[in-house]
Design a protein that fits this description.
Helices cover 35% and strands 22% of the residues. The protein is of the alpha/beta class and 422 residues long. It has 2 domains: 197 residues, Rossmann fold (3-Layer(aba) Sandwich), CATH 3.40.50.1950; 225 residues, CoaB-like (Rossmann fold, 3-Layer(aba) Sandwich), CATH 3.40.50. Strands 13-12-9-14-17-18-20-21 form an 8-stranded mixed sheet, with helices on both faces. A hairpin with a 6-residue loop joins strand 7 and strand 8. It starts with a helix and ends with a helix. The N terminus is likely disordered. The structure holds cytidine-5'-triphosphate (CTP).
C-alpha cells in the first residue's frame, strides 16, 4: 500500500469552511501546515493574520497555501466593502485560532476588538477552537489560567498545548502548540464532518499509545537512551487508526514518519511522556509500547559538563522514573477499559512478563525477546507472546505491522465483547 492511499483511507474529512486566525508566535509556521492539512480534507480555508503573526509568516505564503485572499487589517476599506469583519465572522463553520498566544487569549477573554482578529472573534456566532502556544511560565501564570477558565466557560474549545521543548533554548514544559494534524482532527470532530475516521471495528473509540525510547538529559548535549526504534508502537498506532479509532500517539524521539491519521504528541523524557498520556486520557484502550528509561539523572547540568585534567570522572546520580503504564492501569474509575503493556526481556521472557502484568495491573502484556540475537530492537520483525489473565499465546514470528494488526484486532474484539463505553 502506498503512503498516499494509506493516508486517504484514514484521514478525517472536513467539507466545510474554516476561518483560521494566526496569532503572532513562533508556532505560526505550523499553522501554514495546518492550512494544507485542512484543505487536503476538503475544507475551504480563509486566513486572518494578526499584525504580530506577520512577523513570522507572510500573507503571501498563507494566500498561496489557502488559495484564498488573506485578511490582515480591520480598516482595509476594500475588505469592509467586499467582505466586512461581520461577514468574515459569520461566513464560516468554524474559527480556529492557532497559535492562540497569551495576548490573544487575554483579549478574547475580555472581549476586546481593536484589530481584525479580535473583532471577528467578538462578532462570531460560530464555534471557536483555540490552539494555545506560549512559554510554559506564561501558560501556568494565574492570569492565563484565569483567561482560559473564562474562555472555557464562554464555550471556546481548546486543543493542547502539548508538553515539549520550546523554541527558547533550554525551555521545556507545557506550552507547545498542538501539531497540525491534532488541530485538524479536533476541527473535524467539532464540525462533525462526514466522518472523522474510517468506519471499522474501533470506530468511536479513543486509543492512546506510547512509542519509542525516552531521552533523559545528563547535560544540554548528552542523554541516557535505549535502542528502541518506535517501529512497533508506531505500527500499532497506524493499525488502530486504520481500524477506525481516534488515536493519540505519544512518541519519544524517533526517526519515523508520523503514522497517517494519528495525532502525534512528541516528547523527550519519561516525565513528559507521563504528562502527555495523562492529558490525552480518557481512552478506551491504552497501549504502552514505549521503552521508557527506568532512570533519570537527578540534577541534569545546565551547561555541558567539562573534562577537567586531574580531577575525578563525574558521578551521575540516578532517580527512578515514574511508571507510566502502572500509573494508568491503577487509575481507578477513569482507567481505560483495556490496558496493554509490553515486556522487553532478554531472558525468561514469559515468566518475567507474567510478573510484570500482575505488578503493573495491566490486562495484557505483549512479551518480546529483545536480546541482541533476536534483532527486535530496530528490526522489522517481532516474536511475541500475549500474556493475559487467561494464559499465554505464543504468536509465530511476523512483521511488526502484522503484530500490530493482530493486537488491534484482538483488542477490538475484547472491547466489543465487553461492550464498554468511556
Ligand atoms: N513502562 C512505563 N513506564 C516506565 C517503565 C516501563 O510505562 N517508567 C512500561 C513500558 O512501556 C512497557 C512496560 O512498562 O509497557 C514494561 O516495560 P519494560 O521496560 O519491559 O520493563 P520495566 O518495567 O522497565 O522493568 P525492567 O526494566 O526491570 O525489565
Amino acid at each position: 500500500m502506498t503512503g498516499v492511499n494509506q493516508s486517504q483511507s484514514v484521514i478525517p474529512t472536513v467539507t466545510q469552511r474554516v476561518l483560521l486566525i494566526i496569532g503572532g508566535g513562533i508556532a505560526a509556521y505550523k499553522s501554514l501546515d495546518l492550512i494544507r492539512r485542512l484543505r487536503e480534507r476538503g475544507a475551504t480555508v480563509r486566513v486572518v493574520l494578526t499584525r504580530a503573526a506577520q512577523e513570522f509568516v507572510t500573507p503571501l505564503a498563507a494566500g498561496a497555501l489557502s488559495n484564498e485572499r488573506v485578511f490582515t487589517d480591520l480598516f482595509d476599506l476594500d475588505d469592509e466593502r467586499e467582505i466586512g469583519h461581520i461577514r468574515l465572522a459569520r461566513d464560516t463553520d468554524l474559527i480556529i485560532v492557532a497559535p492562540a498566544t497569551a495576548d490573544l487569549l487575554a483579549k478574547m477573554a475580555t472581549g476586546q476588538a481593536n484589530d481584525l482578529a479580535t473583532a471577528v472573534l467578538l462578532a462570531t456566532d460560530k464555534p471557536v477552537l483555540a490552539a494555545p502556544a506560549m512559554n510554559p511560565r506564561m501558560w501556568s501564570h494565574p492570569a492565563t489560567r484565569r483567561n482560559v477558565r473564562q474562555l472555557e466557560a464562554d464555550g471556546i474549545h481548546f486543543i493542547g498545548p502539548n508538553v515539549g521543548e520550546m523554541a527558547e533554548r533550554g525551555e521545556a514544559g507545557v506550552g507547545r502548540m498542538a501539531e497540525a494534524l491534532e488541530i485538524a482532527q479536533a476541527a473535524a470532530h467539532l464540525l462533525g464532518g462526514p466522518q472523522s475516521a474510517p468506519a471499522g471495528p474501533l470506530s468511536g473509540r479513543h486509543v492512546v499509545i506510547t512509542s519509542g525510547p525516552t531521552h533523559e538529559p545528563i547535560d544540554p548535549v548528552r542523554y541516557i537512551a535505549n535502542r528502541s526504534s518506535g517501529k512497533q508502537g508506531h505500527a500499532i498506532a497506524a493499525a488502530a487508526a486504520a481500524a477506525g479509532a481516534r488515536v493519540t500517539l505519544v512518541s519519544g524521539p524517533v526517526t519515523l514518519a508520523d503514522p497517517p491519521g494519528v495525532a502525534v504528541i512528541k516528547v523527550e523524557t519519561a516525565a513528559e511522556m507521563l504528562a502527555a498520556v495523562q492529558t490525552a486520557l480518557p481512552a478506551d484502550i491504552a497501549i504502552f509500547a514505549a521503552a521508557v528509561a527506568d532512570w533519570r539523572v537527578t540534577t541534569s547540568a545546565n551547561q555541558k559538563i567539562k573534562k577537567t585534567k586531574g580531577s575525578d570522572v563525574p558521578t551521575l546520580t540516578l532517580a527512578e522514573n515514574p511508571d507510566i503504564l502502572m500509573s494508568v492501569a491503577k487509575r481507578g474509575p477513569r482507567r481505560p477499559a483495556l490496558v496493554i503493556g509490553f515486556a522487553a526481556e532478554t531472558e525468561a521472557v514469559v515468566p518475567h512478563a507474567q510478573k510484570k502484568r500482575k505488578e503493573k495491573s495491566a490486562d495484557w502484556i505483549v512479551a518480546n525477546d529483545v536480546s541482541p540475537a533476536s534483532d527486535t530492537f530496530g528490526g522489522d520483525w517481532n516474536t511475541v507472546h500475549l500474556v493475559t489473565a487467561e494464559g499465554v499465546t505464543s504468536w509465530p514470528p511476523q512483521s511488526k505491522d502484522d503484530v500490530a494488526r493482530r493486537l488491534v484486532e484482538q483488542a477490538g474484539a475484547w472491547l466489543a465483547a465487553h461492550q464498554t463505553e468511556i
